[in-house]
Amino acid sequence: MLDKGHTRIAWIGWRKDSFIGEDRRSGWSRALKEQDLPTTGLASRVEDTVNSGREASAVLLDEARPTGFVCASDTLAMGVMHTLAERGMHAGEDVAVVGFDDSQTAQVMHPGLTSVRQPLEDVAIEVVNALEGLLAHPRRILPGKLLVPTLAVRRSS
């Protein structure tokens, strides 16, 4: 979104007690701050449901006028897309929308939801390796490993 000139990018994520959600939110916040763009008034914390995404995006559109939404999940992003459609707006044309997890729904919904794709096969391999280390004699504790996601770009952004 930043590369496409968006300067008011809203965040819809989960409650503050979600460690995963806070990691995802910090990426949004850091990216905007690095570009000296505002985050105040552009974030909402909700439950992970389509309806919560719908309600949060309606409030943010009315109060903050974002040109794009970054969501902690594809579920929340789907709610944003419903709100846009209800208002006669088009994702990717009037307002950009990006989800997270690259669910099968994101891959097939109209107009196609841009989403962060995690390398789930690599995650599974690393989990098995870690378990093998924990069960080995002597026990081996492997260092943590950060796996790099990719962005599946579709028409919503």
Order of helices and strands: EHEHEHEHEHE
Quick one: how many beta strands? Answer: 6
Low-confidence segments, given as residue ranges, are none
What is the straight-line distance between the termini? 7 Å
| Major β-sheet annotation | 6 strands, mixed
Supply Rg.
Answer: 17 Å
Oligomer: single chain
What is the SS-derived class? Answer: alpha/beta
In terms of DSSP E residues, the strand content is 15-25%
Sheet with the most strands: spatial strand order: 2-1-3-4-5-6
The helix tally amounts to: 5
Helix content: 40-55%
Overall 3D shape: elongated
Would you tell me the overall average pLDDT? 95
Topology, element by element:
Blueprint: E1 9-13, H1 19-34, E2 43-45, H2 50-63, E3 68-71, H3 74-86, E4 96-100, H4 104-108, E5 114-117, H5 120-135, E6 150-152
Parallel strand pairs: 1-2, 1-3, 3-4, 4-5
Antiparallel strand pairs: 5-6
Structure commentary:
By secondary structure, the chain is of the alpha/beta class. Helix content is 41%, strand content 15%. It has a six-stranded mixed beta sheet with strand order 2-1-3-4-5-6, with helices on both faces. It is elongated, with a radius of gyration of 17 Å. The mean pLDDT is 95.
Task: Name some characteristics of this structure.
157 residues; alpha/beta; six-stranded mixed beta sheet; elongated
Task: Write a compact overview of the structure shown.
The protein has 157 residues and is of the alpha/beta class. Helices cover 41% and strands 15% of the residues.
